[in-house]
Amino acid sequence: MQLRKLEDMTGQQLLQRENRQIKLTEAGEVLLGYARRMIRLNEEALFAMNQAFAEGHVRLGMPDDYARFFLPGVLTRFSHAYPRVQLEVFGALSGELLDRVEAGNLDIAIITRQPNRRLGKTLRRERLVWVGSRHHLAHAEATLPLALFPDGCVFRGHALAALEAQGRAWRVAYCSQSFVGGALAVSGGLAVTVVAQSMVPSGWRILGPEEKLPPLPEIEIALHRASGTPPHAVLLLEEQLIENVQGLACVD
């Protein structure tokens, strides 16, 4: 009777009966997709209503370049869904953030996997690429000017190792703890730098063999959580971070 009501409402035949078998018609398949989405939305609404009153204080660590790419959507959704949770964000090099997690001074960190350190949960892999301004030719200088994070940065280590292996002359023209500092030098045509391939800002372009720059390896982006039983608010943020970091498209 319910199916007949649906067929009357839609003006379409939804089921086809042949030889004692029942299967969906083309219209039935379309309606089934919407029905499943409605059920999922209903479940999400019930879950959100049950979680909306979560409380707490979550300390999140993330390097500046990752925060620029991964955080905007997460911060908006999380603050709207859980207004009683206070979120504190710390930006620093990945190694320093991992130190803070292991010391219990951060609850979660999204960082570049560190050589010879505990593994964490791998969320995605990214190819490193050389980048420079679309409107300048810093890469053409005889001694390549670089804008890099300080010693200890995995990106810096891979960049310098690749240039040394190629025999290319280089100099660190700009060094900054923040992504913004190096970005100003690159955008102004004063240096080139290294970023994850999916995170190239507008106004920059990827440089490669045509510009006589060596290939770079992949890096892994991992989530680390402080030891012990995490508060509920930490798990809620972690869920959204994982979904966002894994869901944003990689550029091939």
Tell me what the structure shows:
With 252 residues, the protein is α/β, with parallel strands linked by helices. It has three domains: 2-51, no CATH class; 56-124 and 220-247, D-Maltodextrin-Binding Protein, domain 2 (3-Layer(aba) Sandwich); 127-218, Periplasmic binding protein-like II (D-Maltodextrin-Binding Protein, domain 2), CATH 3.40.190. It contains seven helices and eleven strands. The protein has helices at residues 2-10, 26-51, 64-81, 94-102, 154-166, 179-187, 232-247, and strands at 15-18, 21-24, 56-61, 85-90, 108-112, 121-133, 144-148, 170-175, 193-196, 204-207, 218-225. The strands form three sheets. Strands 3, 4, 5, 6, 9, 10 and 11 form a seven-stranded mixed β-sheet that branches. Strand 1 and strand 2 form a beta hairpin. Helix 3 (64-81) packs across helix 7 (232-247). The termini are far apart. The mean pLDDT is 89.
User: How far apart lie the N and C ends?
Assistant: 52 Å
Please describe the biggest sheet, giving its number of strands, its sense, and whether it closes into a barrel: 7 strands, mixed
Class per helix and strand makeup: alpha/beta
Mean pLDDT: 89
CATH A-level architecture of the largest domain: 3-Layer(aba) Sandwich
Relative strand content: 25-35%
Q: Give the strand tally.
A: 11
Shape: extended
Q: What's the CATH first level of the largest domain?
A: Alpha Beta
Q: CATH superfamily name of the largest domain?
A: Periplasmic binding protein-like II
Radius of gyration, taken over Cα atoms and rounded to an integer in Å:
25 Å
Per DSSP, the total helix count is 7
